[in-house]
Amino acid sequence: MHPLRDLSLPLALSVVCALPSAGQLGSPAAASTPAALSASVWRSAHGVAAVDGKLWANGPDYRVELDARGIEYAAAFGERAPTTQTARFDLVGFGRAGGPLVAGAPDVPDLSSGSAVYERGAGVQEIYATRRDGIEQSFVFAQPLAGDGDLVVRIAVTSSLARAGAADGLALEAPGLGAIAIGAVTGIDARGERVAGSLRWVGDELELALPAAFVDAAAYPLVLDPLIGTEFEVDSDAANSFDDVAPAIAHDWSAGNYLIVWARVFGLGDSDIRGQRVADNGALVGGLLAIEVGGTVSPSAQSPTVGNVNLTNMYLVAWESSSGFLAQSDIVCRSVNPATGALSANTLTVGASATYDIDPAIGGEVQLSDDDAIVVWAEFDAGIRARQVSVPAGGNPVLVGLELDVSDTVGFSYDDFEPAISKGTGYGGNFLIAWERHFAGATTPYYDLRYAVIDRNANLLVTTKSVTVSSGTDERNVAVAGDGVKFAIVYDQEPVGGGNVGIYGNRVTYISGASAPISSQITIVDSPFAESDPDVSNTGDTITLAYVGTNILSSNSPIVVQALDQVDLQPCGGSAGFSDSALDYASPVISSAAESIFNADGGTLVAFYAEDTSTSPGEIWAQRYDPVVGLNVEIIGCGGGRTEVGCALASESEAKIHVTEGIVGAPAWLILSAQPLDMPIGPCVLWADPFSGWIQSAGVVNSLGEVHTTLALAPSPGLVGVQFHAQHVSQAAGGPVTFTSGGPAYHISTAVLATFE
């Protein structure tokens, strides 16, 4: 037994009945509770309120009115919409396909529980509950319904918008403005068993269904979870006569907006850099920004990238600049004021070799100790380069120090391309750079990945190391997210010569000196259908992934967004997808507030390329997304690493609790408690209570400074809002000793107050 003590945890991890939302699949309750059938509506700010005799739910990109029969969803497409675009969803009835359809009775909802609860007759309740990213409609059945066959809900839909297929379901489209997307259906029973449901039009009605075999064998309640959300266009080419490509995105905390930049192609060798600010609530801010405008041939600007500097509240935009098609190219940048959209008077050349300088990427500065950003790029046939750039609040950007050779490929039979850099310094103050290495001289050419670590002043901390080493697969389209100490490297992988493409990743921890160990390869998403072109964002309590998926209903590709556990990179909750019947989506980029200021949480904005499959020109579109992964508040600790909780969702069958930045090789113990102990021990605090709570061995801290514990849960709505404290104690000689017990030295990690969602 551990020297502290071993006790059972009296946490009534009482279980949530929060309904499923975008980014999670559902929340079945205990077997004694009724069955539930649910649908979601995307949002970020939330709450249901009665105003002037009407019931409203509002979000940054939609407005919903609830009445006795159903809801009216109004999409915020902005000023370009000649009229407000709406879709009305009215409950028709519910039942088994082989039994009677029970008509839903009109009712005035009860708001006393904080949700809108309708009594629909026959012992059935319809419930609307708001969460961070949707208003969720659930049908709760007190007992199984009569009959056999599929379990169905019929909803009458009235809208002037055109019907179309979507990434994971159906959509109502406003050409040139956006779409109201209705997501795929998933069923979950009380045991956590899951099944894909169906979604189809039956005349003017929308039918949501779960298959009969699943319903017959299910433990109640059942949850059926589609999702409704709004996509919007960022650029303003109403005539669709130009090609807008290669989006990039960053966030500024003080101004509360994102800057999306892209290249507008006018002709071969003639392209400009454009930009548009987008508020946190999804509204376009100001007009189109002409960041770099060239003549007919000279210069040509392409491949833009953007980062943010928190101290001066400025964006830095960089791009490839050349005199035309196939001409030698340099890396050039200028700053943009997030509050006003004003551009620096002059541009600054960052990289200008005698050959091609290409593929720029920017790492921004989160902390208030520096006003610099890092620009990285590839020098053709030479390697990866980096340069520190000062971004003042007024005036022009300025070069700092010397150019850094991150990698050197001169004289070798391979070359390095397409660098990616973590988008902010985080609390650790460092960047991880990853890139593609092309072995063009091999018998069968292939791509691997490499990485290095630099500090905020462009000093090389960790020289080139391998992410992947395989001549049988190509790893490409690498993206990086991190907090300055812990990093996620995400990429797509395909067999050399072609085959199925999936999303994979690795974890890297920068410990000190020249040490930055990497995990083994992690499979993130690899279905029988292709997943490719990932981007990732550090979103505080999680890593959020955006990638190009496959739409089995259409040849057009969707964008899929998925929250990941920030430590093991495994999916947390369900994914959300969006697509368009006339547009092929590609090149997703994602950013969040956590990349512009330390310790921020909140939603993300995904920007992507949308190509008109009938006319070919492309546009830049965007979609807001708010990951739901549980809420974590870090509390004091000392010397024993950081405790982090991954994926605290009521709908999941497990919760993961991790140590990061721990003492390598040290045995660790996990403490969980409902109430804090808050006991000072020397300069540190034992926050979680081992005496009233629960302590168990977590294992030995691995080479990345990590150890992981998985707690089995019974998915249940009663868990929503339940809180617990988690902290680790490790035993190791040396280091920051926090207390002793008969001789051994113990070290205390930070603590976390975790809340289930």
List keywords for this structure.
1 helix, Immunoglobulin-like, mainly beta, 3 domains, 757 residues, 53% strand, Neuraminidase, nine-stranded antiparallel sheet, disordered N terminus
Report on this model:
- By secondary structure, this protein is mostly beta strands.
- The chain has three domains: 35-231, no CATH class; 300-579, Neuraminidase (6 Propeller), CATH 2.120.10; 631-755, Immunoglobulin-like (Sandwich), CATH 2.60.40.
- It is built from one helix and 59 strands.
- The chain is globular, with a radius of gyration of 26 Å.
- The two termini are 33 Å apart.
Shape: globular
Q: Give me the count of strands.
A: 59
The low-confidence parts are 1-46
Tell me the strand percentage band: over 45%
Q: How helix-rich are the residues, as a percent range? A: under 10%
Oligomer: single chain
Rg, Å, rounded: 26 Å
- Counting helices, strands and paired strands, the structural category is mainly beta
Major beta-sheet overview: 11 strands, mixed
Looking at the overall shape, the CATH architecture of the largest domain is 6 Propeller
Measured between the Cα atoms of the first and last residue, the distance is 33 Å
Structural domains: how many: 3
| Mean of residue pLDDT values | 82
CATH topology of the largest domain: Neuraminidase
CATH class of the largest domain: Mainly Beta
Number of helices: 1
